[in-house]
Amino acid sequence: MADFEPVLKAVVPVAGLGTRFLPATKATPKEMLPIVDKPAIQYVVEEAVNAGLVDVLMITGRSKRSIEDHFDRAYELEEALRAKGDEDRLASVCKSSDLAIMHYVRQGEPKGLGHAVLCARQHVGNEPFAVLLGDDMIDHRDPLLTRMMDVRSRLGGSVVALMEVDPDQVSSYGVAAVEPTDEDDVVKITDLVEKPPQDEAPSNWIIIGRYVCDPRVFEVLDRTPPGRGGEIQLTDALLTLARMPVEEGGTVYGVKFRGRRYDTGNKQEYLRTVVQFAAERPDLAPEFMPWLREFVRKNHDGSPGES
What we know:
single chain; 13 strands; globular
């Protein structure tokens, strides 16, 4: 079986306006909202680095400068912490600037995820690459991206991450029709529909925010017309690739993911994520968990805000 070119670069689109979190996101990128004490976007970059991808391109917008600042050096802060002998906080500050080789390009207009990925064309060139959405966080104990890169290296084509959801959730996602392969967790994509009505969805396997793309996707995106919402949809381009032979850069596989995923794209899931992360922190859980249990005990029968 042929080995295909390895994946070495990651693309992270972060140009969205974050309107679900207004007014907090009026001046602060949604991706910079903290999960306890670390911004969500850092977890995403760490995931890419843990999979061996140290070349990371952020697709940003005009209001996203603080993301660049976060992954840059902060000399004055570092010197202040060093002078205090605060080695733990110093290490945490330096970590973000030493994670990866970071690059940035702006998406001039909000034309959709497909357009954001197309903005990476010059940087990526003719290489396969990973796409990680800033709204989705995958637990570090579940090496989903590594598995997807393994599938790409052996089978070629592009690879998407799939997760099974209740039927009433499919209208919020891209949904895949699949057929089995010789591997239990790997399927071949036969159809993709962006945010279909529940009764028109081809399955209840949704695409979550991890992709490994063949570079042929750029050529396809370049001629993909705007789809749902008037935006250029990556899903539409992947469907075109799914109908092309692998030797032409086509074919799309799906990896069925049954691990721990945190969706920080809406308020309810964001709050759940913060609580889950705090509950697993050894420096916080001993004090936080008893308080949380008592809070729930006092409030589970009352209205919001009652004690």
